[in-house]
Design goal:
This protein has 262 residues and is mostly beta strands. It has no helices and 14 strands. Helix content is 0%, strand content 49%. Strands 3, 6, 8, 9, 10, 12 and 14 form a seven-stranded antiparallel beta sheet that branches. The chain has a five-stranded antiparallel beta sheet with strand order 4-5-13-7-11, with no helix packed on it. The radius of gyration is 21 Å and the shape is elongated.
Length: 262
């Protein structure tokens, strides 16, 4: 079926519980259709606690062709002591997604269609993490003209956390002048805080950026993207990334809970 249109999920709060769509994007349709769009879905998925304030969750995302930024934080605030009593437990879980879909053609004013092209695609992921924070990247590059998969990070997507903060890889694209190349990329972040005696984490955070570049070495050949983006450059961060991640800088109090009645 077709890929779902871009979705922006908004957070809704009631009695200290925040919920958002758990699957903001339909990811089963690969390769993507010949279309272009950018989607982003930040949202706190759960905030539960008792007592007076202090529990907060915040996430945000920014998508652009060639660049994805996601941030998530979860802060248990005053609930900093591990407990086994359910009535004294608090939990925060947040997540964010950003994605883009694009396609383009290797064009030349002098070389005939079918001429081999020397081109590389490279992805770079950087991240900073607090306790219980991480994310993953999905990337798919497909030659619709030859029906060949050029790069597949969907089934074996890299996973990022404090012990594995980044990822850099470059692959050669076996393509030709006139070939239509389709690109699908999604970046996800998540963070959790829980004062359960068996899973104690007072603060979780993840701040992740992924960029994709396509460089052509063959003279008089360019990759013309339908979106108009120049994949030999990396765009600046989007305006949506405005909040500091608590574990990495100053804390925030977005979505702070209210007392929950017994």
């Amino acid at each position: 079926g077709p890929i779902a249109p871009p979705v922006i999920c908004t957070e809704t709060a009631a009695n200290g519980l925040v919920a958002s769509a758990s699957e903001p994007f339909q990811t089963a349709s690969v390769p993507p259709l010949a279309t272009t769009y950018v989607g982003q879905a930040p949202g706190a998925s759960e905030i539960v606690g008792v007592g007076m304030g202090g529990v907060s969750g915040h996430s945000t995302s920014s998508g652009a062709f060639g660049r994805l930024d996601v941030r998530s934080e979860a802060d248990n605030g005053q609930f900093t002591t591990p407990v086994s009593n359910f009535l004294e437990q608090a939990r925060v879980a947040t997540s964010a997604d950003a994605m883009f879909v694009d396609f383009g053609v290797f064009e030349s004013a002098t070389l005939p269609a079918g001429t081999a092209v020397a081109a590389n695609a490279s992805v770079s992921v950087t991240g900073a993490y607090g306790t219980a924070g991480g994310g993953f990247l999905r990337l798919f590059v497909y030659d619709a003209t030859t029906s060949q998969t050029l790069w597949d990070l969907v089934g074996s997507n890299p996973i990022f956390f404090a012990g594995n903060p980044g990822y850099d890889q470059t692959v050669a694209l076996a393509a030709y002048v006139g070939d239509e190349i389709r690109i699908w990329a999604e970046l996800h972040s998540a963070a959790m805080a829980d004062n359960d005696a068996f899973n104690f984490t007072a603060l979780g955070a993840a701040d992740i950026t992924a960029t994709l570049r396509i460089e052509v070495a063959t003279s008089d050949v360019t990759f013309a993207a339908a979106s108009g983006h120049d994949y030999q450059s990396v765009p600046a961060p989007g305006a949506a990334l405005l909040f500091p991640v608590a574990a990495l800088s100053a804390p925030t109090s977005d979505n702070a809970n209210t007392p929950r009645s017994a």
